[in-house]
Amino acid sequence: MGTGKRGLLTAAVTVVCAVTVLAAPGTAFAAPKPTPSASTVPGTGAAPRAGATPGALPTPPPDKDLEKVRERLDGLYHDAAVATDSYNAAEERAKEQSARIVALAKKIVAGQRKLERLKDQAGASARAQYRGGGLPPTAQFLLSDDPQQFIDGAGTVLNGQRATTKLIGEMTRTQQELREYADDASAQWRKLDANRKAKAAAKKKIKRQIAEAEQLESRLEKKQKERLAELERRAAYKAQTQWLDTGILKEIDGKASQQGRKAVAFATAQLGKPYVWGAEGPDSFDCSGLTSQAWADAGHPIPRTSQEQWRRLKHVDVKDMRPGDLIIYFDDASHVAMYVGDGAIIHAPRPGRTVTVAGAGTMPILGVVRPDA
Description:
By secondary structure, the chain is an alpha+beta fold.
């Protein structure tokens, strides 16, 4: 990236983390002293303060209580992300199986037509044999009034026998192929039904997890939500600072490939669009929907889900990554983001958020994959 773009990108990361995440190592937050809670924070079990004056304004809950809320929300959205990956995987398999069934159906139709033609040819051969009296060639030779004429036609008879044998063999093979196509189609239908059920189960879990998270957030007061957002920024900053403190950014100096630049440009153009689970654009995305569409736009299709991207794409060391590479997060590979340089990523975080710029070290990194290796 050019100097101007680097400055803009660094500034974007600063805004997202609420501090300059590329600041000098060792920077730490001075956490404010907690104040007693006068109201219960949903999901934490914090009780009202004893002796509180009725009608008095509630005091902000302690950070430790809101931290429990933050951890609970992170868990719910993580589980939703895992279920989303399962849903997307089932969706991809269902698409592949549907295409396979259509292809098999076409083969079955073509095979049936071929079998009908072969049957017609066999019928014509049988009728010709009937007109010849149905006698074998040796008998026809013995009974012929003109043996020389029969001998002259012996080659034709032999060719006819070979053609009949070939015809019968071809009919047998065609019938066998039709049985195999039908068995394959039945198997694909069973798999398709299983994946439809898997999709339905994943969809149910996604909705349940998101609904629980939204319900928990809806119970927070405005000041609690603001404080919760601040705690999230602090956690992101702390994780990013720890990652940068390793000196990793000094080792990362890879240049984007031509396709990588196109993928980054696509991802950048999606900034501000909402996260929607299962979405692949153009108006909304989930995490792997964004990365898969970015690379498809760059002319290099990749697997749809973060887990398949981790499993099937080439792994590279973090120090060797370059813009356009994908960073896979969490031990279960349930989240993916695109590295865009300067220690930053573009990703679709979770429900209720939009495609945004963040620090590459703000989540636990599982590894890095390169689509165009």
